[in-house]
Amino acid sequence: MHENIIALKLRNTEILSFNKMRNCLYKAKIKNVSKMIKVGEHITLDIIGTAKEYEPSVFERIINEIAKKANVTILNISKYQFEPQGFTILALLAESHISFHTFPEKGIISFDFFTCGKISPSVAINIIKREIKHKRIVKKEFNRDTKSLYHDIYSSAGLQKSYVVNEVLEDFKSKAGQHIEILELEQFGKSLFIDGEIQVAASDEHLYSSTFVGASLKLNKSNERAAIIGGGDGGVARECISKKFNFIDWYELDPEVVEVCNKHLGDIGKKATEKNSVKCVWGDAFENIKTIKEDTYDHIFVDLNDDQFCIDLAAKNMESLVRILKPKGVITAQVGSQDKKPQQVENWLNVFHHYFGNTKLSRVYVPSFDCSWNFSSSINH
Predict the structure, then answer these.
(1) Which of 127, 145, 163 is the last residue of a domain?
(2) Which of 136, 187, 197, 255 is the most exposed place for a label (fewest CB within 10 A)?
(3) Is the pTM of this model over 0.70?
């Protein structure tokens, strides 16, 4: 803000402009901040079921009472009456602002109070309840700070969930077309998101990868040669190395995923790409496996997305996977969550049953996913 002129436009009518507005950022340059910096508190109230249209003087009186209770300083008040109905009033504070916007046709009055003062803006609630007749009030309170919320794509209309983000470490689109983000999460540490969906978190990735590889080895303990399709974070490769596989062919579409995970989530992959037992094959895995001899692998780990596109892609190429899998070899895929997407898990299982006539489902709870995750394993008889 500082010396810039701010124009506030309400309902297409410019009603206020001012400069040198005092702000609460203290001119701090926030770069690479891991510690949360709070600049204020914000409250919004949507007052539902208001039966009458109040005079402008009523709102001005309420604002003055709220300002006194919150110990904030009013610098200026601007108001505007709309035709045929509706009213807007805004109080510019030394600490930020208070406003009312009325919607008589909807029976709603909206209230907004943001302050960097020492007293919470929630002190306004009881005053408004007393002064304005209503049926109910929808309240939203939040801090204005350097933390952000990242929407969980598995939220439903009735249950909205978000990850609390302390810092964004990477945010870019790879040459392969994937939106890659590395976020420092409040609860789960550094985490990889691809196309808006969490892939791994530093705090609990070991649960995912160890269950993945362990599920396969329970059905066949041979550890001569393994193929990994996907798994750019390196966790499955790390587990295969720890289980002393002699040869690991890692087929990964997007080398930029591997690079960014090595940079920020190095403890997951533990430099797997540098191990003598690991051969990285970049590009389309299903094209690359066409050159592989029959009966090559004891284990194939399919770490693709669990969406329908990847189910169809795997089904289309399953004969190629069967061809390179040794007799009694095991193919294991992450198939998603029965808790969140039961139909997609069922679709994966149908593919494995069709080609192998058997499947065993393993399950582990992954806290950062907020659900249990499933892995399907089939023996090549």
Answers:
(1) 145
(2) 136
(3) yes
107-116 per-position pLDDT tens digit: 999 999 999 9
What does residue 293 show for φ and ψ, rounded to 5 degrees? Answer: -65, 160
User: What positions carry a catalytic annotation?
Assistant: 96, 101, 116
The CA distances from residue 274 to 89, 121, 153, 200, 258, in Å, are 64, 55, 34, 21, 12
Question: Is the domain of 22 the same as that of 138?
Answer: yes
Whether residues 296 and 359 share a domain: the answer is: yes
Sign of CA dihedral 355, 361, 367, 369: positive
Q: Answer yes or no: are the C-beta atoms of 374 and 354 closer than 8 Å.
A: no
The percent of residues in the chain predicted with pLDDT above 90, rounded, is 82
**Residues 111 and 210 placed together within one structural domain of the fold:** no
The residue with tokens 């406003």 is 99
Q: How many domains does the chain have?
A: 3
Domain containing residue 236:
205-379
**The pLDDT of residue 208 is above 50:** yes
Residue 53 is assigned to a structural domain of this protein = yes
Residues 67 and 103 in one domain: yes
Same domain, 139 and 165: no
Q: Is 354 helix (H, G, I), strand (E, B) or coil?
A: helix
Residue 42 domain-assigned (yes or no):
yes
Pairing assessment for the beta strands 148-151 and 136-145 based on DSSP bridges: unpaired
Number of H helices, E strands in the chain: 10, 20
Domain at 42, CATH number: 3.60.90.10
Instruction: Say how far apart CA 244 and CA 224 lie, in whole Å.
Output: 8
**Model confidence at 165: pLDDT above 50:** yes
Note whether 160 and 248 are same-domain residues. no
Tokens of 19: 């400069």
Q: Which pLDDT tens digit goes with each residue over 79-97?
A: 999 999 999 999 999 999 9
Residue 156 scores a pLDDT above 90:
no
- Interatomic CA distance for residues 97 and 115, integer angstroms: 7
Mean pLDDT on 276-292? 95
373 located within any domain: yes
Q: How much is the pLDDT for 124?
A: 96
Amino acid letter for position 233: D
DSSP alpha helix (H) spans, the chain: 56-70, 124-131, 205-219, 235-242, 255-264, 266-269, 285-288, 308-316, 318-324, 342-356
